[in-house]
Design a protein that fits this description.
The protein has ten helices and twelve strands. It has 332 residues and is an alpha+beta fold. The relative contact order is 0.14.
């Protein structure tokens, strides 16, 4: 008579566990390797690749788990595969193009920029508190709904602090706003499903362009729209002319997305990255700063240099806000 603890039973169990470990390792390695291949190839691919690329540093977790499973199963190909996946992930984690050339011209002005996605206007009170506390000079607001956000921005207190504004779009997610302490005028827009207005702003004696960014998220049904709208932001950056340009908002993309890197490659720099806050997560706010992706950005052209940046928690939204102190320099 044999029992479950007999040598025969143990002999049958060990191969099954080994096969299960190898299978689990292979699945995890595919999950890790496929987005890495697209990242290396400069493409965002199709679902679920863009979604996984947003959390690229976290691919170290399935890669490390696959390494442990391969070791337990004594699966040599898995060990080499996992090591290559971990090294590949680590290679993409360092900062991207953080060595922007220093401005050559003299300093002309200093200004503070704030961008905030209010999640259908739910974080309007949080935004008002941030305006009082941070006192930004230029503000880009996304998901500014008519009932709460737009009405609050029309209050006497906000108008006194920000006498110049630009509102665009209708609905809870489509609405965007620009607030300014400096005179501004409408300067067109980037076409998109969500409003992306642009203002020409006169900072005492100097003119710059301020663009709100809010392309569609890279959901399976809107991937083509996401790429197209990021491409339009890239085209704006590439054809910006001599005037300084700020593009601020919820880009729904991180620098591990090829479509976002194309915007940077058109001549813009990520303020948070230049301020030493690369990869600081902004979404989803419930899990930041432990887990998340940096998809909210303030991008600037060469004449603008960030002096400091900080991320702000606003109650009621799934995004963190971003405040950046900028210095405007004259052209060389």
């Amino acid at each position: 008579m044999t029992t479950g603890n007999s040598p025969a039973a143990a002999t049958g169990t060990a191969p099954r566990r080994g096969r299960a470990a190898r299978t689990g390792a292979a699945v995890l390695l595919l999950l890790t390797t496929v987005p890495l291949l697209f990242r290396a190839g400069g493409s965002d691919g199709v679902t679920p690749v863009p979604q996984l690329l947003a959390f690229l540093p976290w691919l170290l977790v399935p890669g490390g788990t696959a390494l442990a499973l391969s070791l337990a199963a004594r699966w040599r190909p898995g060990l080499f595969w996992a090591a290559a996946a971990l090294l590949g992930t680590a290679a993409f984690i360092p900062s991207y193009a953080a060595d922007a050339p220093p401005p050559h011209g003299p300093s002309l002005a200093r200004l503070r920029v704030l961008t905030a996605n209010l999640e259908f206007g739910r974080a309007t009170d949080g935004l008002l508190a941030a305006l009082r506390r941070e006192r930004p000079d230029l503000v880009a607001v996304q998901e500014c709904d008519p009932e709460r956000c737009a009405a609050a921005l029309d209050s006497a207190a906000v108008r006194a602090a920000y006498p110049y504004r630009l509102l665009a779009g209708h609905g809870a997610s489509e609405g965007s706003a620009v607030l300014s302490r400096f005179p501004l005028s409408p300067d067109g827009e980037v076409a998109g499903e969500l409003a992306m207005p642009r203002a020409a702003v006169t900072v005492p004696g100097h003119r710059l362009r301020f663009q709100v960014a809010h392309p569609m998220p890279p959901l399976p049904a809107s991937l083509d729209t996401w790429r197209t709208e990021l491409g339009r932001l890239r085209d704006l950056a590439a054809s910006r002319g001599p005037e300084p340009l700020i593009v601020a908002g919820d880009f729904n993309s991180s620098r591990d997305h090829a479509a976002f890197r194309a915007v940077l490659d058109a001549g813009l720099h990520d303020s948070a990255e230049l301020a030493g806050l690369s990869r600081t997560p902004t979404w989803p706010a419930r899990t930041t700063p432990v887990l998340g992706a940096q998809i909210d950005h303030v991008l600037v052209s060469d004449a603008l240099r960030p002096r400091a940046a900080r991320f702000l928690d606003l109650a009621g939204t799934d995004h963190r806000a971003l405040a950046v102190d900028l210095e405007l320099h004259a052209a060389p």
